[in-house]
Write the structure tokens for this entry.
Amino acid sequence: MSPTLYWTLLAVSCGYALLRGRKYERLTAIICIVASIVSVLLRAPLHERYLGVEAGDLLVDLLVLSAFVAIALQSDRFWPLWVAGLQLTTSFSHFLRAIDANLIPQAYAAAERFWSYPILIILLVGAWRSDRRLTARREHEILA
């Protein structure tokens, strides 16, 4: 996937969540933004990338997984469960690489990054639905 596509989707989904979302949408957006930036800072040099377990990405992914599980357990919405589940799948990619040293680096890279896109889309939809519910509630109160 294109880095430009990822950063654009990150900006759109997290920006919308920060502007229109409730507490958990905003918190998830902040986690996604910080994790993306920290992952870039901790990334191995290009000639070494994905040849072994990416320790920096593993650390970030496990911290993000912990945060997403905490949000899922506290939220009254269903979308955080999906986000936590997809992050768990992302985190497992590191363990697959640790178990199978013959795993092709491109497959490891794809497995580690693929689920970030659906996570951002789910966040965007969750924030949009939250905004729609709030707008409908306000309209109902005005009419009542």
